Amino acid sequence: MHKIILHEVGPRDGLQMEKETVPLEFKIKWIQAGMDAGIDIVQVGSFVNPQKVPQMADTDKLCAHFMQPGMKPKAVILSALVLNEKGVDRGMACNVEMFCMGVSASETHSRKNTGMGISEALTRIIAMAKVVQAAGKKVQVSVQSAFGCGYEGAVPEGRVIEIVGRYLEAGVRAISLADTAGHATPDRVEKLFAALRQLDDQVECACHFHNTYGLGLANCYAAMRAGVGYFESAFAGLGGCPFTAVAGGNVCTEDLVHMLQHMNLRHDVKLEELTRIAADVSRFFKRELLGVVYNTGAIP
Amino acid sequence: MHKIILHEVGPRDGLQMEKETVPLEFKIKWIQAGMDAGIDIVQVGSFVNPQKVPQMADTDKLCAHFMQPGMKPKAVILSALVLNEKGVDRGMACNVEMFCMGVSASETHSRKNTGMGISEALTRIIAMAKVVQAAGKKVQVSVQSAFGCGYEGAVPEGRVIEIVGRYLEAGVRAISLADTAGHATPDRVEKLFAALRQLDDQVECACHFHNTYGLGLANCYAAMRAGVGYFESAFAGLGGCPFTAVAGGNVCTEDLVHMLQHMNLRHDVKLEELTRIAADVSRFFKRELLGVVYNTGAIP
User: Hey, are the CB atoms on B300 and A150 less than 8 Å from each other?
Assistant: First the structure.
């Protein structure tokens, strides 16, 4: 019924806030295991300034490693986040297959994150997306803070729809709505994705939820109710800042797959492989992580 | 749109597995605070053998306390669980307003829990429900393990529908489906509650989910999609056995209310009061509990 696509963003969104730098060999091991488990797309990192985000400094190496012949299953797509033109050049140089990029629907978040307002950032992202598409690469554009912003609070739906409209006009149809702050509730998720469908029935919607307030899986289900089958999630529910009261991790990959499999979907994915990755990640960071199923095991 | 009813089962289902006995004064404080916060129904305990479940030994005292004139807001209903005829007598003696009782849809769970098979237990429960109704009291009947069983695995939907049919035949319309093991997934929740509606459009459905595999709030949303607005939940997500790998707590009351309020429902409930209860419960047990919002605070 639903075509489900799993985009593992743990190596990027899951790790970028972690203070302890993960050695390249661990990243390779976790990414490899995710590919072997049956994940469709893996976001290995982001092409940002290594001085600013040391955790992402090895993104070029990771891409180069997995793009060597025979180093990944052919069906698996390697993605990376790019923030600017320099990132696009780096991604091209190491042959990454899919470029992810986006703008925030919150003016404040956009300025804090990129130094640009929404309008300027959007123009720039659209230009980048066109370059990437022209080069024959896959591109996914996102709207960050699509369901609310930690700085601004509520984000008007109209603003999200306007940004998506601009993406569609530019000929980019793979669009992700990211709930950066974890403010989404399932009713609004259904409503907003339904509105996107109305804009263009060829739009390929992805959803990217954070579990800050425990609503991640409820929001994933709501997205499915609106016809969305493309999920971005992170192993062990990693993500967000571990040093604040608000442990705003991503939706946990293995918990999501567990739910999907008990909804009779994606039985091809090896859940046990995924829980083993989560357990290994937990051992690496020497703490309990937010995922549930790697602790409890699956429903028997 | 939705009429929402909140039934706090923390003092019963939340506490019954806790080894450390909670003094009467703490229970009174937590229950009082829940009533003040705007909870509609509070399940104060169960009329079971105090030797077998010492944590529930003060249920009669709690009922008697809150049924004194002026000790609770008039709109709040006091409920308790009864397992047998003796429990009904005790409930009548201390004037409890609502009697909750049920049978399991799993033969194994039924026998382990009551020493009776489903059929015998059902006959007995229906007879008890009629006695309670005849005495002018409210009654709610439930189907436990309605979405799967830790012993038997999958539970056929047909069996749940059959039990509900028997309840309806007997003239009992307040029916709760309890996911005792936490096996429910949102698709099946929608399907099963929709099927119940088809049996009788006057049925008053309640849902009772456990968060064992992280699916509690997703299941609550799915129940809402099927027209259910009556939720049973426990403060701080308490419940289940804390000494196993599977921390199968109830859906957390304050997390549920938080979700509902961000869906523009039940703004009358004082969320901050509820998070204060959860924080106090956490201090009492000297451990972090499963609720999220008592730690993070609400979405700003």
Answer: yes
Query: Considering only CB atoms, which chain B residues are within 8 Å of A212?
Result: 296
Q: What is the pLDDT of residues B170-180, one digit of tens each?
A: 999 999 999 98
Are A178 and A217 within one domain?
yes
Q: Sorting pLDDT into bands at 50, 70 and 90, what band is B244?
A: very low
CB–CB contact B183 A263 (8 Å): no
Size (chain B), residues = 300
User: What is the C-alpha to C-alpha distance for residues B6 and B184, in angstroms, rounded to an integer?
Assistant: 20
The backbone torsions φ and ψ at residue A276, rounded to the nearest 5 degrees and listed phi first, read -65, -40
Q: Which domain holds residue A8?
A: 1-81+252-300
pLDDT tens digits along A125-180: 999 999 999 999 999 999 999 999 888 889 999 999 999 999 999 999 999 999 98
Please check whether residues B152 and B164 belong to one and the same domain. Answer: yes
Phi first, then psi, for residue A103 (nearest 5°) are -130, 160
Mutate to test the interface with B, among A262, A267, A282 (most CBs of B within 10 A): A262
pTM of the entire structure? 0.96
Determine whether the interchain pair A296/B150 forms a contact, defined as Cβ–Cβ distance below 8 Å.
no
The predicted pLDDT at position B246 comes to 58
| C-alpha dihedral (A26, A32, A37, A38), degrees to nearest 10 | 140
Based on the domain organization, do B27 and B49 belong to the same domain?
A: yes
